[in-house]
Structures are given as C-alpha cells and as structure tokens.
Design goal:
Layout lengths: L3 H24 L11 H10 L3 H6 L8 E2 L10 E5 L29 H7 L2 H17 L4 E3 L22 H16 L4 E7 L12 E3 L2 H8 L1 H8 L5 E4 L3 E2 L2 E2 L4 H11 L5 E3 L8 H6 L28 H9 L4 H17 L14 H14 L1 E5 L14 E4 L24 H9 L3 E4 L19 H13 L3 E7 L22 H11 L3 E6 L14 E4 L7 H10 L12 E2 L21 E3 L8 H6 L4 E3 L10 E3 L3 E2 L3 E2 L4 E10 L5 E11 L10 E10 L4 E9 L5 E3 L4 E3 L3 E10 L2 E10 L1
Parallel strand pairs: 2-3, 3-4, 4-6, 5-7, 5-17, 6-9, 11-12, 11-13, 13-14, 14-15, 21-29
Antiparallel strand pairs: 1-2, 7-8, 10-15, 16-18, 19-22, 20-22, 22-25, 23-24, 23-28, 26-27, 28-29
Bound molecules: beta-D-glucopyranose.
C-alpha cells in the first residue's frame, strides 16, 4: 500500500521513538540511586523493588567476611574486616585461613588500651581517621571495631582490645574514633555488645548483674558510641545476658539499643553468635555472620543458606509466622548502611600503610606509653654515660601483631624495640632473649622447646657486664596471654620472667623494666627496680616509640586506663566465689556490682600497686586550687571547674588533670569517687596555663532501679581534682538543687 519512501519514514520514526524512550528511561535515575534524595527515601524505594528472597539475603553471610547486596539493582555486597587496631589481612571465602594476598599489608596502630592511656581524644580522632582511610582503601564497608568492653579483671585475655575500666574515659575516647572512621564512608562496628568481659566460656556463659551495674558501668561507652558517635553498626557479643544470647537479646538490642538509644544502623553477630531463627529474627539481630563456623567447607549443603537468618528465616516469613515488617526493618538497616558507605559516591578514596599513617601510629604510641616508676637514676637514658646496654627479653624482638586472635595484623613494617634501640645506640647494645614463650597458636598454648636455664644464664651473663639493662618482657599474643579465645592463667608474668628479673637484679641493679602488655601484671620486683615503663602493644612503630620515651626525646604522658592491683585477690571480681569469676561454666554473677576497677579499690580502701589515671613524667607539674563558676546548680547545668597547671620542671610535658565526683550523704551506695571530667594539657618548661573542665550535673547521676531511670539527688557533691585516682590534690564542693 505504502510506497517505499513512506515505509522508510515510518520505520525511522518508530526506531527514533524507541531509542529516545530508552535513553530517557536511562536518564531518569531510580530514587534509591539519586544521592540528592534523603537516605530514608532511597531506602524505602530500594526496598520496594526487592523480592522477599533478596531482602532475606541481606541478613546473613555469603562468605566468611561478606554478605550479599542486591546485584540486580547494583547494590553492592557488604565487606567487613577486623578491627580494631588496623585492617586485617584478607581471609579466604569459606574458611578462617588467610587468602595470601600480597597487597593487603597495613599499618598496625597501637592497641586500644594504649589509645585509652593517652587520655587524649585528639589521638582517638587521628587514630580513627588513619585506620578509616586504610579500611576505605581496602574497600571495606565495615571495620569491626572499636571494642569497649569494660576491664573487669586483669585475667581477661582480650582487655588489650578495649579501653579500660572506666565508663566515662571509654565513652569520651570511643566517640572521635568512630566519627573519623565513618568520615571515610566506612562503618565502624562497636563491639562486643554487651558484657563480654572474659573469654573463658564466652560462647555461652550467662552473665547476671544488676540493672544499675549494667547502666552505670557496662553500657555507657556503647551508649556514647551510638548517641554521640552515631556509629553505623554494632556487634553483639557471644555470651548470654539474663538467659538470652546477646546477639539476639530483646532487652539489649530491641529495648535499649534500638529503642532507647534510637540506633538506626545494623546489629551484626559476633562470628557464630546466632543460635535460633525466631529469636534472631525478633530480638534485634540484622546480619548473621560466622555460623557454622567454617562456612561452606564443613557442610554438604550451602551452609550460608542454612544460616538462621537465611532459608529458615525465609520459610517463617513465607508461613507468616514472622511478619514481613521484620525483614523489612532489617533490610532497611542494611541498605541504610550501604548508602552511608559504599554507595556514597562522595566517600574519599583512602590510603594504605603510608608514611603518614606510620607517623600517626607512632604519635599515639608515644602519647600512650606510661612511665610507672622512675627513681631518676636511669631514665631518661644518658647515652654519654653508657658504654654497654644489655637488652634482655623476648618481647624486644617478638612481632606483637602476630597472634592475639581476630585483631591479628599483617603490617607492612613492625619495628621491634631491639631494632630501634640498635639504630639509636648502635654497638652499645647487646641482646639476650632471656626466656622463651613458644609460637603464637590460636586456641592452645605451645610451650617453647628452648631450655629456660640456659636462656636465663645467658641473659644474666650479659647483664653482669653491662652498664644497664633494658628488660623488655610482659605478655604476648599467645593463647592465655593477651589473646582472644582464652583468659590468663596467672596474674604473674609468664615464662619465668619474675625469676629472670630477680636473677638479673643480683648482678645489675640498673634495670628498666619495659612491659609490653594490654593487662596489669603482678610485680614482685617492683621495689627493687629503679624504673618501669608500661608500653602496651604498640603496632608498627612500637620500637621507635619505646626508644623515644626511654631516651627522653619524648616525655611520657600516658596514664593508666585501669588499676594495677597488688594481687589478683584484691580485685572486685576476684573477691567473691567462683560464680563471680569465672562463673560455674553456665552462669556468672557480677557480685562486685558497680564497684569495678578503682571504684572497688577506693571504696573498700584497698591499697593498689598503680592507680587508675596514674603515670609519671620527666618533668613536674603543680595544680592550683580550683574554683567553680557557681556554688549551686540545677540538674541541667554544667559545673565549670577552673584551675591552673604549671610545668615546674625543665622539659616540656603533658599532664592529665582529672576530676572525680562523690555524692555526699547519698541515700544509696555510691562509689568513693567516679571520673567525670579530664583534660590533657601540654606545657613547655616553666609555663603555667589556666584550664577549665566542664562537669555535667547529669553525669553525676546514678541509675535508680526503682524508676528505671537516671537520677541526680539534690544535695552536696564533692569534686576532687587530681592527677590519678590515688592523687587527689584538691576537694571542692557544689550544691545540686
Ligand atoms: C571476635 C570478633 C571478630 C570476629 C571476626 C570473633 O571471634 O570475637 O571480635 O570481629 O571474630 O573475626
């Protein structure tokens, strides 16, 4: 009918409209991809496009360290990595083995105990920024850290990964870390929520404690992470609390975390922390990881499909026994986290193992090392008077980034104390190992085959002919030391170190004991050695940082984030029966209640070896009598305490002024004192500076079990100003109306 020309024109028209429709379709972005839209709108839109199966797939692992995205919609997978001291080397898809990549070496930052020992939120910020950049470079969605479980006993094998015994200190320190990590478009994952205060029986022990202890001691740092740090994910802990596993615990996750604190991120299990589908679904868990726990390799069927929050969850949803709103909430949380991280096109690119990051690691390490004892005869080292320095101890050469469990790292460099001392003091240094611990091995301690007597004799021999001895010992990352999966067996130093130190003392009294550990230890030799340095696990720059402090290039300014009791039985958790610690394998009852750390020692007037907040300097400081801006305060107000700090010595240095509060004539038991404010002040020699520390009246509250709420009683409160829990220099008081 039509002639050729008309046919050609019609065809061209059809073709043109088809192409233009498709181009238009491509130009209109779906709402969830439109970054100019509010995140909540995007979450809703993405959710509306997903099948039930796709939603369920967001809620459980697809490999050892990842969970699915929605490939069909271009929504990426979630990739997680430990955490918290650096970005862990890549793990195999289906098992705990390392993938042996050659491009995943990182910076090892100091352990979180060291960070807490800086008492310096600025250090926490540079830490978070740098580790966040490394996580971003490695393209992680989630960095599994920081950890803020409270230091309840020196026996906990994992204390080194946490921020000490005080809820206020841990709360202040955790926030900048999280904020800075997340500026990189990587979610921090604060862990382990909650009450994972020991490793022994961590997989099931049922912790019982009062609401008051829960609220005043064990939860505040998590609360700060959520409400101030705005953390995007939280990891549940392995243990149970009041008969429910913490990874699906209605009170902790639904009521407190998501209800009271309005947490809008994801709750991720600890690896293998989920135990049942309905509870996992209904009691607040969002992403199930590690069940099995070796992924596909140990089961015939696809193990990931058999996760509690996988096919069994889908079945329940399809049956209607779990409402779809439940999976919608979980999927929304995962989507929100993805939009905040990997789908944020503005997230920076990150960087890995750079010289800048090494500098950050060193700075934090130098800021956190604590000088515990110094009679002035030996530190800082005066090289001009020393011809021969004997360095003794396995920790002078041992790689501390190896072992320790999930926080193990593969750093590009790790400078040992011996190496750094050798580069500073050259041929003056001689070295003997002195003792041997055995190789790092997860879940078991393998004793060394070396002969202890010959190692000790060799060390004593080099000590005898040296001008001084630098003993570098402590704990290490082996099982039953500073290591996940087990607790310490003894409060004393392991591997015969006490004996070794006392043998060295017989031939040479000029000894500095450098303790590499994340835990307090017994010190039977404390009165006999002239100097002790608490050096933590310092990561890549360990040796350099220790050497700067020993040499005096850096004036130490770290302060203990936990008490060193004289003996283990002095500690609150060890003052009752076995049920109080370590539990009877089923239950554990925190009988010391709110009296954790210095709250226990000070209230019970128990003398300690080194106080919470304690640390010496190569200079001296004086604090002046403080004044407060008023005498009477309303409950919503903040007390401003002002005083001056002067550096009265000959070198620049930093002091940490600390304010503790005590409620006078309290109607209920309250600790002798509680930290509620602090500030680290750097001063040049001779310089004096005025300092104001705010203390919120609300922070003086206790948890009132009658009303299940915080309560500030009206009345008199003492504010103590000092430089440690054991060195209170001034008392002031205020009235709360
Ligand atoms: C640890 C977590 C860690 C996870 C993944 C668990 O055993 O308790 O802290 O993030 O493993 O490695």
């Amino acid at each position: 009918m039509y002639n050729r020309m008309t046919r050609f024109l019609i065809l061209t028209l059809i073709l043109f409209s088809a192409v233009s429709i498709s181009v238009k379709a491509q130009l209109i972005k779906p709402v969830y991809l439109d970054e100019t839209r509010p995140v909540e709108e995007r979450v809703k839109n993405a959710l509306s496009l997903m099948t039930l199966e796709e939603k369920v797939a967001l809620c459980h692992a697809q490999s050892k360290f990842s969970s699915k995205g929605v490939a069909r919609l271009g929504i990426p997978e979630v990739w997680m990595s430990d955490g918290p001291h650096g970005v862990r080397a890549e793990i195999l898809w289906d098992s705990w083995g390392y993938a042996q990549w050659t491009n995943d070496s990182c910076t090892a930052f100091p352990a979180l105990t060291c960070l807490a020992a800086t008492w310096n939120p600025e250090m926490s910020a540079i830490y978070g920024k740098a580790v966040g950049e490394e996580a971003r470079y490695r393209n992680k969605t989630v960095l599994l850290g920081p950890g803020v479980n409270i230091y309840r006993t020196p026996m906990n094998g994992r204390n080194f990964e946490y921020m000490g015994e005080d809820p206020y200190l841990a709360s202040v320190m955790v926030v900048p870390y999280i904020q800075e990590v997340q500026k990189n478009g990587v979610a921090a994952c604060v862990k382990h929520f909650a009450l994972n205060n020991q490793e022994n029986w961590r997989g099931h022990i049922n912790v019982e404690l009062s609401d008051r202890a829960l609220r005043e001691i064990y939860l505040p740092a998590f609360k700060a992470a959520v409400t101030e740090g705005k953390v995007w994910s939280v990891m549940g802990s392995y243990n149970q609390f009041r008969g429910e596993y913490c990874c699906h615990n209605d009170l902790l996750l639904n009521k407190i975390l998501k209800g009271e604190w309005k947490f809008d991120g994801t709750v991720i299990t600890d690896w293998g922390g989920a135990h049942e589908t309905k509870q996992a679904a209904l009691n607040g868990l969002d992403i199930e990881m590690g069940t099995g726990t070796d992924g596909m390799t140990r089961s015939l069927k696809n193990a990931y499909d058999n996760y509690y929050l996988a096919l069994p969850f889908l079945d329940e949803l399809k049956k209607g026994s779990i409402p779809e709103s439940v999976v919608n909430d979980k999927a929304s949380r995962v989507l929100r986290m993805i939009f905040r991280t990997t789908m944020n096109s503005k997230r920076p690119y990150g960087s890995l193992a750079t010289p800048e990051h090494a500098q950050v690691a060193r700075k934090i390490a130098e800021d956190g090392i604590v000088l515990l004892k110094n009679d002035g005869s030996i530190l800082p080292l005066d090289a001009s008077k020393l011809n021969k320095i004997a360095v003794i101890g396995e920790n002078a050469t041992r790689k501390m980034s190896e072992g320790g469990g999930s926080s193990e790292l593969k750093p590009r460099v790790e400078i040992s104390p011996l190496k750094a001392l050798q580069s500073k003091y050259g041929s003056k240094i001689t070295y003997a190992r002195g003792y041997a611990s055995g190789p790092p091995a997860y879940g078991r301690a393998i004793p060394s085959k070396l002969n202890a007597d010959s190692l000790r004799n060799e060390a004593v021999k080099i000590a005898e002919s040296a001008d001084m001895v630098i003993f570098v010992g402590g704990l290490n990352k082996n099982h039953n030391q500073d290591c996940e999966g087990g607790d310490r067996k003894s409060y004393n130093l392991p591997f015969g170190q006490d004996k070794l130190i006392s043998e060295i003392l017989k031939v040479n009294k000029n000894i500095v004991v450098v303790l590499v550990s994340g835990n307090a230890v017994a010190m039977p030799w404390v009165d006999k050695v002239p100097a002790i340095v608490q050096a933590w696990h310092l990561g890549s720059e360990a040796g350099n940082a220790i050497t700067s402090v020993l040499s005096g290039e850096v004036n130490p300014s770290g302060k203990l984030p936990f008490t060193f009791p004289k003996q283990l039985s002095d500690c609150g958790a060890h003052s009752f029966d076995k049920l109080c610690f370590p539990g009877d394998s089923i239950r554990e009852v925190y009988k010391e209640d709110i009296l954790v750390g210095y709250r226990w020692y000070d209230t019970k007037a128990i003398p300690v070896q080194f106080h919470f907040g304690f640390g010496l300097s190569y200079t001296t400081f004086t604090l002046s009598k403080p004044t407060t801006d008023k005498t009477d305060y309303a409950k919503t107000e903040t007390v401003k305490m002002t005083f001056s700090v002067q550096n009265t010595g000959k070198v620049a240095g930093s002091e940490v002024a600390q304010i503790y509060i005590t409620q006078e004539n309290a109607p209920i038991m309250r600790p002798a004192k509680e930290l509620k404010g602090f500030k680290k002040i750097l001063l040049k020699a001779g310089v004096k500076k005025s300092v104001t520390i705010p203390v919120k009246v609300q922070d003086m509250a206790y948890w009132d079990e009658k009303t299940s709420n915080w309560k500030v009683d009206p009345g008199k409160y003492t504010l103590s100003l000092g430089t440690s829990a054991g060195d209170i220099q001034y008392l002031g008081s205020v009235q709360v109306k």
